[in-house]
Design a protein that fits this description.
By secondary structure, the protein is mainly α. The protein has one domain. Helices cover 72% and strands 0% of the residues. The chain has eleven helices and no strands. Helix 3 runs antiparallel to helix 8 and helix 10 crosses helix 11.
Length: 268
């Protein structure tokens, strides 16, 4: 009797073929990214570590604002938001080239074209997961306690994946028609970094801005991540709005993607 893995591609279900192709493309992305790099995996953690070090130095040393921005230990407070931010911004930024980079494969494949966005989100998500041990080391060294709220981590990842896929589905086809959108997306991400509770917490904002901060879907997502080490950062209102907006982005992204798909193939 043959093994399940020996089933020919033609006999697989469409969902099975999609999953198989997604695994292959995601693995290819990771191999290409690190095969020519001497440091390999370390590059996935060096960027957030350097950024966290800079902001820790600025806010904890230069301006001596320990305890007045975020929570202590501040380096853990920073990293627990910076790592998922790197996943989000990396995936959205790369999605602007999702079709243009592999135009020949996009035209020739019969697999649903959503895979060209999903494999980017998946590979960046794997990098995020691979960097979590570094966060754990910093938490241990700085005596940051972990509470039962750490169980919210998978929920935060699911909501973030939905949001990231939705935004990726929006920008990927539109960039094919409007090339300037690629640079506009990078500018928007730069603005979003400072508009998101990364170097600060939502509770650090003026009271009149708390309500409006909820409509940044990353606010609730970072609230869930931070709750693992800082239970006081959990805000269920933020989480609820973030979940609703992430699902909305996912739905709108899929609609735009489907409507633009044929025109994209003609344009490539």
């Amino acid at each position: 009797m043959s093994e399940p893995d020996s089933v020919s591609p033609a006999k697989r279900s469409p969902a099975s073929r999609y999953r198989h192709a997604l695994v292959l493309l995601t693995a290819r992305d990771l191999r290409v990214r690190y095969s020519t790099s001497a440091l390999g995996y370390l590059w996935s953690i060096l960027d957030p570590l350097v950024m966290a070090g800079i902001y820790w130095f600025v806010f904890s040393v230069v301006f001596d604002r320990d305890g007045r921005i975020g929570e202590q230990p501040y380096i853990v407070f920073l990293l627990v938001a910076l790592l998922p931010w790197m996943w989000f911004t990396g995936a959205v930024s790369d999605s602007t080239r999702a079709f243009l980079k592999d135009a020949k494969l996009v035209r020739s494949t019969s697999i649903p074209r959503t895979i060209w966005v999903n494999r980017i989100v998946a590979s960046k998500g794997i990098e995020f997961a691979a960097a979590l041990p570094v966060l754990a080391v910093f938490a241990i060294v700085n005596n940051a306690g972990v509470g039962v709220e750490a169980l919210y981590f998978p929920l935060a990842m699911v909501i973030q994946a939905a949001l990231t896929i939705g935004v990726g589905m929006l920008v990927a086809p539109l960039v094919v028609f409007f090339r300037d959108l690629e640079r506009a997306t990078k500018l928007a991400l730069r603005f979003l970094f400072y508009a998101s509770p990364i170097v600060y917490g939502t509770s650090d904002l003026p009271e009149q801005l708390h309500f409006w901060a909820a409509f940044n879907p990353l606010s609730g997502i970072f609230s869930l991540y931070r709750a693992a080490f800082f239970p006081g950062q959990l805000d269920l209102f933020l989480v609820g709005v973030s979940a609703a907006m992430s699902l909305l982005f996912l739905a709108v992204g899929l609609i735009v993607f489907r409507r633009c798909e044929r025109a994209v193939l003609k344009e490539l």
